[in-house]
Structure formats: C-alpha cells, structure tokens
Amino acid sequence: MSTLIPFLFENFTLSFLMLGLIASVISLLRQPRPITASAVVEALFSYFLLFSIGFSFFYNFVMHSFFGETAARFIGWEQSPFQFEVGTASLGYAVVGFLAFRGSFGLRLAAVVGPALFLLGAAGGHVYQMMMTQNYASGNAGVIFYTDIFIPMISFVLLWLHYRFTLESNRQDSSSALRDRADL
C-alpha cells in the first residue's frame, strides 16, 4: 500500500482514466436494459471527459501552481515561473472538461481538441528531452509520456463515436417525427 498511493498520484493520468472507466461501468449498470451502443458511448465519453480531462487537468493545475517544485522535480526539470502558466492553462482545460461532462457536441469537441493538442505537444517535448538531455525521469519518460499520446487518441475515438451515434439517433428521431406527422 505504501507504494500504491505514490504510484497512483505520480501516474495521475492513468489513475483518472481508470476512475473514468469505473464510473462508466457503474453508470451503465444502473441504466435500464437493454443498454444501447449509444448509451455505452455516452457513458464512456462523458466520464472520460469528467475524469481524464476535468479532474486530471485540475490535478495538473494544483501540482504546477501550488507544488511547482515537486512537479518540476518529477518531470526532471528545474523550478520555473512557467510552471504557473502551465497550471493556469490546465485549469482552463479542466473547467471545459467539467462543463463538457453533460454538454453539447460542440462543447465536447472543444474539450477534446485543446487538451489533445496540449498533450501531443507535451509528448513531443518529452521526446525532445529524452533525446537531447537524456531526461528519463518518470514524469518525462514514464506513464505520463504514454498517456500524453494515448489520451488524445482515446478522446478522438470517443468523439467520433459520439458524433456517429448522436447523428444516427437524430436521424432516427427525425424519421419518427416525419412518420408521426404523416399519420396525422
């Protein structure tokens, strides 16, 4: 247990991804049967946004803004005033993630694109640091590096699935409404 808690905090991106999956499963278990593919996508995407974007970026905000020395050491850097800027950017992404939890498609699109570009840019920075300075600190070359790549990939897949199922659902609703009008 003494190593599990530091692992969970140091690898917070993976921890929040797993918490989002657990919340999705709980949400789906509480839904009436049969569970549709659309409901599965909605549960996965909404809790992904809440945990992997909202809570994860809020945690990043707290660490970079209030515990900058610790965050810098974890990444293998020196403390810098830039830490606060990264923190406040993370706060912005967190707020959009929280709003997108039950938000519209457009809000969800914004909640995916900004953080995805930030994370992919961070992954590029990690690669540069590994190649140029041999920085293999766990906050630069560990789980954080891999989730900086996979979180955007997951978010775009979930966004596409959400769009696909929302579009299908809207088409079916429109067809039903047209049939209902024709019956009048």
Automatic annotation (TrEMBL):
Residue spans crossing the bilayer: 12-29, 41-62, 82-101, 108-131, 143-161
Keywords recorded for this protein, A-Z: Membrane, Transmembrane, Transmembrane helix
A Pfam family: DUF6790
Keyword Transmembrane helix: yes
Highest taxon listed in the record's lineage: Bacteria
Protein's name in the database: DoxX
UniProt source species: Gimesia aquarii
